[in-house]
């Protein structure tokens, strides 16, 4: 149950000053609180023994008021330190998670769905922070308060009465433990259900147009209702256990009260205790209920925190299986060579790249073509290091790619993916994303190369036009060209276009390709495409089939081979002619 606290020990250590301050002020607050029943007990005994004077009454009342105010002030201080600590913990855990997400490559994101990651970064982190705030408060305060009250009961009233009266608490402790175990299991199940619900909401929001187009709203609503129903059941199962704690505490503390009255009255008759003692003892028993309830809640908070911690650790300990980062710096642009490279996706049943041998001299353009599913994107992903490298050799210059620091290679690359990813900001922001401080002049230049200049003229706010979430308010071809302009503004050493112009017409594509050729002399470019006219001018073209290079050469050489490239080219030429 306390493992979660142990796991947070680094955080507690780092903030130990705040926790020490909190602990000291808590002791002060408790001492002042337990002093109050003692004063009342004294007052009753003065009355019963007819010893109360006006001066004595003023003294007791002043001490009473002073204790009350002091207890309140100290309580404010310890609460402040504890709960700001919990907020700090949430912040640092979320920062850690975000840093981890940003560091991870594809394999990691294939293991967790987005909604699940969101659930873990929000609800689970909050449950863990509750252990550092509320949990820690209860752990320190309730145990401290309980010890102080029990001490006062024993020392100022009677140890015998205290031990007899509090005996039933053993049953309570045992029950707390059993219920806590069950609670941890049920909480974990409820959280998984929340993750899955999150995923479904995201999927619906993302796919709303397709859902509407296929008139599937009712089906989805039905499915969603079933899920919320199942989540309700799972949350109710958590609530059931939570609800059992309070009545149980009340029953047990009532038994304690009955014992204390019975045995206390006997002790008064015996002459061992005064009436004031019994009243003070009852007040102490009344005060004990809160810490006991809190310890019950502490069990809940710790169990839930522990289940949440397992879920967050699961994310943080899952890696993307990438190789260790290299240490070399890239000093100059260089040739790229792949020798006998084989690659298989972790979830794939077959090789996805086999015996790839390519050489791309610095500044040259390579075209990558082939049927759908032939392995074009897979090959480009090796350059982007989205997956671990396959077997074989992959050199940049004289050194293996793995020898270099990963982010240095990344800095060399400008990438235009097949599924263009745009942010819900302005055209300017989306393009400037490719280069830290881009001037409007540079943005307009890259727009021109990407053949987006005429489209921009039609946009009412020009560069400031907002493109909507994921670019909903612009066309597919416009998205592709903004995405291309973003890569071009970086003027990267290696430009990778992955079927990046599929949504623009052949004429515009021609214009873009010839613009790229003009501005990218001496820079390496890789173009994967279905439209062969886009790679006609490339220095080298490879044809992939089932992950293997089946043809290679320049355009003329490939035509002369009269293989797949030749047939495909003729077919496309015919189509273009018809259009
Ligand atoms: N993440 C993945 N995990 C497992 N298999 C994958 C993954 N991505 C792609 N594949 C498989 O690898 C093979 C090559 O896919 P790839 O996307 O590289 O083809 P492609 O030539 O780019 O196709 P297209 O022209 O349709 O984009 C396919 O059989 C595909 O199913």
Describe this protein's structure.
The protein has 579 residues and is α/β, with parallel strands linked by helices. It has two domains: 3-317, ABC transporter type 1, transmembrane domain (ABC transporter transmembrane region fold), CATH 1.20.1560.10; 336-578, Rossmann fold (3-Layer(aba) Sandwich), CATH 3.40.50. Helix content is 66%, strand content 10%. The chain contains 20 helices and ten strands. It has helices at 3-7, 9-14, 16-48, 54-103, 106-111, 114-157, 159-166, 169-206, 208-213, 217-270, 275-317, 376-384, 406-412, 427-432, 440-449, 453-458, 476-488, 506-519, 555-561, 564-578, and strands spanning 336-343, 353-360, 365-370, 391-396, 399-400, 413-416, 494-498, 524-528, 540-545, 548-553. A six-stranded mixed sheet has the order 6-7-8-3-9-10, sandwiched between helices. It is elongated. The two termini are 71 Å apart. The model has no long low-confidence stretch (mean pLDDT 86). Bound molecules: adenosine-5'-triphosphate. Residues 345, 347-348, 352, 370, 372-378, 418, 499 line the site of adenosine-5'-triphosphate. Residues 22-304 form the ABC transmembrane type-1 domain. The chain crosses the membrane at residues 20-40, 60-83, 127-151, 157-176, 247-269, 281-302.
